[in-house]
Amino acid sequence: MRLSSFPLSAWVGIAGIVLALFCAIFAPWIAPFGERDVVGDIWLPMGGDFLLGTDNLGRDLLSRLIYGARTTIFVALAATIISFSLGMLLSFTAAVTGGFIDQLFSRFNDLMMAIPTLIFALVVLAVLPQQLWILILVMAMLDSTRVFRIGRAVALDVAVMEFVEAARLRGEGTRWIIFREILPNTLSPLLAEFGLRFAFSILFLSTLSFLGLGIQPPAADWGGMVKDNKDGIIFGISAALVPGGAIAGLAICVNLVVDWLMKRTSSLKGGRGDA
Fold it and tell me: What is the value of pTM for the model shown?
């Protein structure tokens, strides 16, 4: 795959993701001020010493935005990785095993998906202690139901292939069939779905933080920054729009890359079929 074959939209998405990752990794070295430092008056306009202005407590918005990238991306990525690991393992097991195990996993998954995700998360997070690992696990558990659905669908398509039947006839176990036969042949659609789930996790985390049950202050995250500065919109102050734009921008960049991956996968399948 040559770099010249990448469309402009993919380059835009990759550039946005790389910028967000750069800010997340090097936040302490590139942020002008500390994450929690009060450095000026409240809601100062953009310019001067504060490129993006200040927030409702007088903290530098640019610094908070950079540190917020670290928190937002870490939590969303951790939740996505856990949800994918859990969802793929259960869905592949259900597809390969079939019978009672398949019905049990599938019906439980349907039950979980029938519950509104946001309401379920709000109830659980309101009861449990406000800790970061609990937030990640709740997000991962809810998102794994979506991963299970698509993982089971693609695994069922591959499970009926001749090479899988040949592996069964050789006496290979369930673990071999899942990790050596099915997983390598379903990576392309699952990678695309991983990107979509990551974008959804960013939006979901921001929603929870906006409602007060996500990342807890004074730690910076983009959804919490929108919540902190939302009252300024009444007075024509754009402090809440800055983190809101960052959330939308990163989600769009991820979707651009995912869209390119999905189109590339489709074209490869079409090419193989024509051959």
Answer: 0.86
